[in-house]
């Protein structure tokens, strides 16, 4: 009988203990939920300010990043190294385009752009920007569109800092030293740094050098139409809340010297009289307009002209 009573007591004590754990867990969860709700409401106010003061046609509002603080968003998805200008490796200037820019151009219509990818919770935008550029350059030289490996750069580029950021200028140099890039299929993206597993026999594309492109937006457009998609960088503050349309934030929201996100310029044109750049992002197809961000063209908005570059494939 004692054994049975003892067993019942043990069960009661265990049940109470588990119950207390549940209560503590619920309290923690509720506290975090409350915090996220507060952040969400503050972010809605920021999105409303962006909306009220936007000089383009953009719609800002609820996105998959709406419950993150600015600091969380920056440290998880952006790349603070881009605005550390002393780190930048000097690059050879690109020759200007042979002719003026056509009225509009989009490399998606010409087969030079792979589907939108997702960098996940890793500040590896620099790798996606560079592979996107090389995919375009390889296509223009060889007629084959490959999806190239960002994970190879995250793991094997000793000049950059994997998920903590990097510079396109460094990435080009690392690719040259490695001997090229494997495909996404052979070296799959994991979204965190691993031991380098590069195999030179699996190289699918290589580059010969890299170039820095003009900071003049008309020349950028002409070069893009003639030579292919361009690796660029910009201040991504407004991008946290962007849903669709042509974004044209005021400078107060989008300091052109504080660039923190690398992307791929694939085209340009006009929408209802508003000139835009078409930008391939690396936050998945559920971001913006099917993974794309459209930014006002003609005012160097958000520093879009500050860091334009391309690989060279001979």
Broad structural category: alpha+beta
Counted up, domains total 1
**CATH fold description:** Cathepsin B, Chain A
Strand content: 5-15%
Query: What is the CA-atom radius of gyration, in angstroms?
Result: 23 Å
Task: List the SSEs and their pairings.
Blueprint: H1 2-53, E1 59-60, H2 70-77, E2 92-93, E3 105-106, H3 125-142, H4 151-156, H5 168-178, E4 209-212, H6 217-227, E5 230-234, E6 242-244, E7 246-247, E8 261-271, E9 274-280, E10 292-296, E11 309-312
Parallel strand pairs: 2-4, 7-10
Antiparallel strand pairs: 1-6, 3-8, 4-11, 5-8, 8-9, 9-10
Pick out its properties.
314 residues; Cathepsin B, Chain A; 3-stranded mixed β-sheet; hydrolase; disordered N terminus; globular; 6-stranded mixed β-sheet; alpha+beta
Question: Could you characterize the architecture of this molecule?
Answer:
The chain is an alpha+beta fold and 314 residues long. The protein has a single domain, classed as Cysteine proteinases (Cathepsin B, Chain A). Helices cover 34% and strands 15% of the residues. The protein is built from 6 helices and 11 strands. A hairpin with a 2-residue loop joins strand 8 and strand 9. The N and C termini lie far apart (88 Å). The N terminus is likely disordered. GO terms for molecular function: cysteine-type peptidase activity. This is Cathepsin F. Belongs to the peptidase C1 family.
